[in-house]
Amino acid sequence: MKKHLRKGVILAVLIFIGVGGFVLWNLFGKGEVTFVKANSGEGFACGYYYYIPQSVHKAQTVYILVEPNNTGFPSEEETVFKNDAKNTAMSMKSMAEELGCILLVPTFARPQSDELMYTHALDRDTLQNNTGTLARVDLQLIKMVENLRNLCAKKGLTVEPKILMDGFSASGTFVNRFVALHPAMVKAAVAGGVNGMPILPLESLDGEKLIYPVGTADIEAITGTAVDLAQVVAVPQMIYMGALDDNDTLPYDDAFSQQERDLILRVLGQDMQLRWQTAQQIYKAQGANATFTTYAGTGHEVTDEIKTDKIRFLKDHMDGK
Question: For residue range 227-275, what is the model confidence (pLDDT) as tens digits?
């Protein structure tokens, strides 16, 4: 009887520890992709997803890694963007785990009713929008980061003041342009598949005024905030393209207006891969802290090699390199 009683007590204790551990784990919010509803009172009219990796613990000071959402098409269905953002967060869990970073993915819409507002690329129409749920999505993203930082503080986590960013295609363009708008907020950024034309850290080139998003000439006129180009070029960026990438958005009106298109053709040219080479030369001439990589045999895609390089780049800068 005593032997069976002892086994029963041990089993009960193990069950208690297991259930208690499960409850504590979920209270801490680790291991699950969690949705935070829009909160206009706190400055974000769109919701976001976050993920706290199992590798994160209270003794650490951790970074928030922002991965902007990108459906690849417009829609009027809110659930399209919410589901896509959740899928993005799920697919990014392993990267967040490896980096030991808290992941944030916004759920910004890309409205079909206003196709020229390419929110997922943070284009000119998007930056100029000051009304509705998509007003100044760059500022909304900052408020989401603040909200998540406060949520983490309640869980006993200390979060770094600057963020890491990663994106590809339209979301890569979003990341690269966000750095130009808010350089003081970004520790390091990775932007891929940027159509051969990252935003140029210049106000003019060869007598041409480089309006946003080609360059930075009129950002202050649009946003009311002056651009500190010294801060912009100081942000560590990994910017990459595939050598076989032919996904050129220049001809499309949702990506660029005719004015922007004509300007790009004059200062960077027609061919995307040649634009890519010219952009690298301009960044280098400006002393930008940018690492440009062209991946041979690669199209408009993120390969395993690229994933490894992205993680290594972000880890290096998390460690202060």
Answer: 999 999 999 999 999 999 999 999 999 999 999 999 999 999 999 999 9
- As a whole number of angstroms, the distance between CA 16 and CA 6 comes to 15
Tell me how far apart the alpha carbons of residues 105 and 48 are, in angstroms, rounded to a whole number: 6
3-state secondary structure of 127: helix
User: Would strands 48-51 and 102-106 be described as parallel, antiparallel, or unpaired?
Assistant: antiparallel
- For the whole model, what pTM was predicted? 0.90
Q: What's residue 295's pLDDT?
A: 98
CA atoms of 316 and 61, how far apart (whole Å): 16
* Fold held by 28-311: Rossmann fold (3.40.50)
Query: Which long-range contacts link 309-315 to residues 24+ away (Cβ below 8 Å)?
Result: 309/238, 309/240, 310/95, 310/166, 310/190, 310/192, 310/238, 311/95, 311/98, 311/99, 313/188, 313/190, 313/236, 313/238, 314/65, 314/99, 314/101, 314/164, 314/166, 314/188, 314/190, 315/99
3-state SS assignment for residue 83? helix
Among residues 98, 91, 108, 89, the alpha carbon closest in space to that of 51 is found at: 89
Summarised one tens digit per residue, pLDDT across range 53-111 is 988 887 678 999 999 999 999 999 999 999 999 999 999 999 999 999 999 999 999 99
Pair of tokens at residue 172: 């890569």
258 by Cβ neighbours in 10 Å (0-12 / 13-18 / 19+) ranks as: exposed
Q: Report the C-alpha gap between 147 and 168 in whole angstroms.
A: 25
CB of 51 within 8 A of CB of 32?
yes
276 neighbors 224 (Cβ within 8 angstroms): no
- Other residues' Cβ atoms within 10 Å of the Cβ of residue 309: 18
Torsion over CA of 293, 294, 299 and 303, rounded to 10 degrees? -40
* Alpha carbon separation from 162 to 6, 55, 185, 238 (Å, rounded): 53, 20, 5, 17
Peptide bond into 213 cis (omega under 30): yes
